[in-house]
Amino acid sequence: MEGNPYPAPAHPVSGGLIRLQARLTDLITWLGPAWAASCGVIASGNFDWQASEWVRLALVILLVDGGWGTLWAAVGGTNWAKPLRRWRNWHFGEPLPTPPYTLPDSPGDRASRWMGQLRAWWRDVLWPSCGPAVSAIIISLPIIALLRAMLGTEPVLLSIAAVAMMQLGMAWEGGRGSVAPGWDAVIAITLAWLAGHAAFGPLTLRSVVLALIFGLAWGVAWLANLAWARVAGVGIQLLAALLLIVLLRPLAAGTLVILMAPQLAMLPWLQRGQSISNYVRYTRPWLMAAMLVAAWAL
């Protein structure tokens, strides 16, 4: 058998199990899940400003940001495809000890060799490239389970939906460490809004519709350099304003239209060579303000 071409490091450096990284350059986008959850709480109309309500709000934000956010960053932001490709042709690693009297090439002998190869692949390939993501998954899953149990039945179902969407998003993109904006919008905005609402009261159709609308607007903003996406972004937010008019909230509807003006005014930036990330960064506050106004109007 040939030697392992990916030897393990002699002495890996020590480090913390959880690492917090400041993202001040993208603070608005980073605050998206917590903001959406807070809007969902406001849309429920059941926040009484008491100490127990603040504790519950903190638990919701911890669920969608600390739990879902950590898991989503690990699942969707890690290149799992590369180590998995190596595993397909991996034949290195010492077999694990077998029970006495195990015959050569028996099921027990083959399992021993397979487990030895798996151990070597995990140590030499998967852990060096995906170790932080694996640690994050191990930490976040119990936190999600604990928080959703504390918040009630509907947050449990929404957490299951969030985890399922994360797996679908990762599989759809081939596990390459990048996901389409639509997947991120559903998890970070739509489901976070619904989780905030569900933690304080039964979901309503109008709240669900607004959560879907603003999730779409959040995701399509990353495609604003395309003509159809610009039209869709305007139409989606006008749809939210129309819904508020139907609900007899004309002042809120007018405010949403006013909040669209800065977003439209910044579109020419893209034609002058400005990056889409800068456009998103500077238009996010106006979209978040629209989310807050719509939630308050409910």
Number of helices: 12
**Class based on secondary structure composition and strand pairing:** mainly alpha
- The residue fraction in helices comes out at over 70%
Q: What composes the largest sheet?
A: none
Number of strands: 0
The unreliable regions are 1-25
Q: How many separate domains make up the residues? A: 2
Give the topology string: H per helix, E per strand: HHHHHHHHHHHH
On the 0 to 100 scale, the average pLDDT is 84
* Shape type: elongated
Indicate the multimeric state: single chain
Beta-strand content bin:
under 5%
Radius of gyration over all CA atoms, rounded: 24 Å
**End-to-end span in angstroms?**
68 Å
Structure notes:
This protein has twelve helices and no strands. It is mainly alpha-helical. The longest helix is centred in the middle third of the chain and has 45 residues, at 107-151.
Features:
298 residues, 12 helices, mainly alpha, disordered N terminus
In short:
With 298 residues, this protein is mainly alpha-helical. The protein has helices at residues 27-30, 32-44, 51-76, 81-88, 107-151, 153-172, 181-198, 205-220, 227-246, 250-265, 267-271, 276-297.
